[in-house]
Amino acid sequence: MSAILMFQVQIISKLLQILIFLLRISVLQQGICYEQFFGERTETLDLWLTAEIVCLVRMNENLPVTGDILPDLISAIECNFQPGTDYNMRSASYMLIESVKESNQCLEIGFRMLDICFSIYVQQCGLQFILHAIRTKWPSLPPVVQQLSKDRLINCLLSSPANNDIRSTPAIMESFAQCIVAIVECDWPQKWKSFIEDCRSISKIGPSQAIVVLSVIGRLIEDVMEFELIEDPSRNKELRTVVLDSASEFFDLTLEMIKQSKAGEIPPSCAESSVRQRMLEKSYHLLNSLIASLNPRPHLFTKFVDKILEPARDAFKSGNIPVAEIAISCLESVFPRKASAKNYKPVVIFFKSGRLNFAYDFIMMTSLLPFDQQNHALLKAATHLFFDIATCFCSFWVGCFELFEIEDCIDNWDSIFRLMLSLLKHPSTYCRMWCSLIFNSMKNCKKVYKIERFAPILTELFEYIPKATLKNGEPSKAVEPFSAYAKFDYETNTAFSIDYHRLREACEVFVGDWVASNWRRAYSVVMGWLDEILKNPAKASNDECFMTTAKVIHVVFDSLVDVIEDVKKTEYTIIQAKVDAVMNALQNCQVVNAIQALVSILSSLFPILDVSDPRIPGILCKLISSLTLGIDDPEMAEVRHHFTYLFIKMATVHQAHLIAHIELIWKEISAVAGQLSDHQKCTVVEGLFALCKLFKNFEQYAQLMSVTLQQTVEFWASAEIMAAVSKPENFLIYIGLGDPLTNDDSLNLVYHTRRKQFSFHVKILHSVISRLEVPTEIEDAKTGGFCITDVQGNLRICHPAAELFQMIFPTLFTFLRCLKGIYSVSSLKVVHATYDKAKLFDLTDAEKSAVMGKPHETKKFEDMQRQEVFYEKMKLFLAELSDHLQHLLIRCVFAFDWQFFALPNAASYVEHGIFGDLENLMDYRLRLFLRRVITPLSNSTTEVQSYFVNGLAKLVEHLNDRLIARWHLIMKKENAYEFDDEQTKQQIFTENVVSLLTKELALFLRSLLLQQDPEKPRATPKAVELPEFNSSAMDTDANDEQTSSSNALSFLGKSLLQREVNCYASLVSLLLNMLSWREPVAAFHIGQVAGLAILEALQSNGILDEESFKHAYAFILGAMPQQCLNPEFVGRLYDLAVQLYEHFRNIYPNAAQTVLLQTTECSLGDLQAFDKKILNALENPDFKSCNKVTLKVKRDWFKSLIKEFLKPLKTHQVRQIFGELPPLQRPSPQPFFTSSISPNTLPNLFQES
């Protein structure tokens, strides 16, 4: 009786539920507000209705789904897509849909929902049901059901009416394709041998069916070849082979559909025309995928060359711009920009017998099209195609020259040079830039320049370079015809400037290469240009190409130095005459542009002269006097800087011509020194010290420093400056920030002068130390007087600047700490209230752009308000001053070596000066600090490194506290629900800064802690950029052989983990926390040293107890779900977990097992089986060698143990844990000493502010 009653209740509930559904849908369709219709009973009705649907869902879990549910399901789907549906109703509807989807009848229900009378939502949901059933239940279905389902799906597709708008929508067709692909991935070719023939038959029914077939093949190639989405690797490999073997049939089918889309009369309706256009575009997209899939087997290109080129030729002739752009992509896939040598030979066939002439003609035709947005987009694509073809041809010409039949392929050079000339004449700077980059690829093809048949076109190219390099496409200044293109090429002037410099540099490469191959022809051309300029320099300067022509002349004469002996044999007297003519022209010239051009030409001519030529003194005097040209004109500053650049170039490149005239140079510079700007003075000093390098004489260096740095030493030694830099508050007051913001020019000038003095006296010291070179060989050092003998009788090399610099070190290191302290809260209190402190002490605009990864748009001060100019200049002053001083002192420490550490206060300089007050640095500046310290520190000797242990210990503790706080803040912000636009921007900025700091810190710690491979060359001080990580080189199931072969901690790594240093807890905590943060590159670097650090922590007097080990092991396990989506790195975590399990198994027998049971939720039986395998492996002599095979076996064991823990559905449940490890038996603080130098011998110098 109760069963009958229950059944009646169920029937009544269903009927009521259907009634409410229909009533609600009716109300919504009539446009009546739901709340208005039901009045105050809305909430009650919603709750009841939701409860009824939930009840229906629960019944559905226990009862088989029948046809009775279909009307309710359709109503739920329609209700779910209505915009007026409230949250509760939508959730309940979703529960019902998901319940049916997970039932055993979802396949049948899905097919019944494909009736053409249903809405697009219902049919799409039905296809999703079918797709879900195929992906989850297909292998378990009986063969009869599989065949029946496949037939029903195809029949449904075939029976779709041509005029049915729903079936022809992209969403429905893509859903059909997904279902068919899911079957293909399971059954082809074993159970569906006629798959390709069936595709051909289906495609002939109509355009809609053909689009589905194209999507099926395209998705299949993507899933198998590109993304490898098949879960079973062996099945994916099998399908990959089948796809490649069927490539010819796929090509034929694609070409048939391209022809089919164009066949017949003009379509009668716009709808059918749109479908045919989609079919055509999709056919070319598939063709592109097929070509890309051939890259693993490039030898197949010889088989399909005509099948590739024919449709591309048709697309170019069609005038259909979208299709032409896709055809361009197809050809780009053929010509890889970077290809290995094995890929060269197969593609040679494309360059033979004029096969690419149609492509060259199309690119030429595109460059001649009138401007409009569509044509310009096509031109950009065509230019990229031309770049790919040309660079690929250059690579083949160099790498496989013997494979070419010259007569078959050499005609390509004619077409390439002809197109380059055409594109270099185009008004679009973007296209000219991409075209010019081909010159870089031609650097190794210089033999082509010597082929006589190309001489006319190459000469024409050379003669056009001055016009091609005109700066006429800047968005804010461009005029017609350049302005129209500039608007679509670049958003900002900065973006334009970047491309313009690339264009100019590439053209200069061509000029230099062509001169090296045909110097007589280039020399003849530029001599004609020079004669025209010398006739009347003032008049010639009015020509728009005057400066670019002068630049080309300058490059040509510079390049003649490489063939100088040949030039001197025939042209020396002519060169002398031209030098005299230029000097005479300079005597009478008053036009700035003309003077700048003539001096540049003169500086490039004088290296061709003999060292003893009497004209050289006059040239040097003229160049040095030009440094003060227009000294009172601010607009001439750039010209004067250009002359300064020429001087430093001459001093570093052409030293032999200058060294004989050093006294004259010194006399001339002394005469104009008072008129030089600070920047010029620093550059001139650099040039002088670069010249002194040739003397290799200690006394010479000492004398030069004594003269050039006398004022600088007096400045830093003065009581006024020492007091100003003693505390951050004093410094801020000294540079004027303690006084109100004012427009009083006289007062502002005083403070401006003070700021300029600080900048200058830091920069000039940096200029000296950067150019001063000390011999590294003992014999050379002895000859030059650089050696002394210490008390032990050892011969030591002295640095000539050490004695002078040690006099000002107390002030400089105090100032370094002072600059870091100006950002502290206490220091900011002295800044007057009239200043906006947030703007005053912010990052510069350039630094912000670097954080966001955007090109920096330089602001012009004349376009800004006066206060904004002040804030921007002050930010630049503080940033550059701190940067230069930090760089200078770190460089001094490592350059002076033993001389620095012999100073009484060396330990305090390092610990308090370099590593002091780091907590006040902003995150971005701290990143730069790590980058600046890392290379010299890792390259230094153990003796030097020992002085840095205390400072590094403080740094590690601070970094641990800072990074954990930053990560917590980011996670907290992500969990916040309400953000306005400003908060969102700030959140993105913060995340980017923390990301940069985390990656830099990971690289720093890896370099610091890991012992370097002695066989590998050490990094140079200039190599401070973060290396690009090649994730494709990593293999999840293989040992990381490409990483450092060293498997030991460095001296610093061991020192920092000693109990006495007292930072090991922070170091281990930092390493483990970084493993579970979201930066995969950081995790990779840290993964190399984390295990070594933990083992060292145990071996260093047993400071890692059992509880600490459990926490550490839990960190490593917790990092795996975070990194499981990055298979390149998670393999290292597996190896680390296995290594620690083995090592600590006997020390703390149950610790690792307890953590595994609690964290990964693995079964006790599986864990015991894993433990037994590890035990057997430890006892097996074959496993004692830690090679690639044994690591892979153990890794597989571990992955099998925690496979449930790593499932994607569980990944989101694992929270990142950031915090300190347990105390690790922390001892009482004891300083770590490696010498008798006390760190507190300078109480007055480094007193707390």
TrEMBL record:
Domain of life: Eukaryota
Protein name: Exportin-5
UniProt domain Exportin-1/Importin-beta-like: residue ranges: 171-291
Residue ranges of domain Exportin-5 C-terminal in the record: 415-1204
Organism: Trichinella spiralis (Trichina worm)
GO cellular component: cytoplasm; nucleus; RNA nuclear export complex
Gene3D superfamilies: Leucine-rich Repeat Variant (1.25.10.10)
GO biological process terms, semicolon-separated: protein export from nucleus; RNA export from nucleus
GO molecular function, one term: nuclear export signal receptor activity
Coiled coil residues, start to end: none
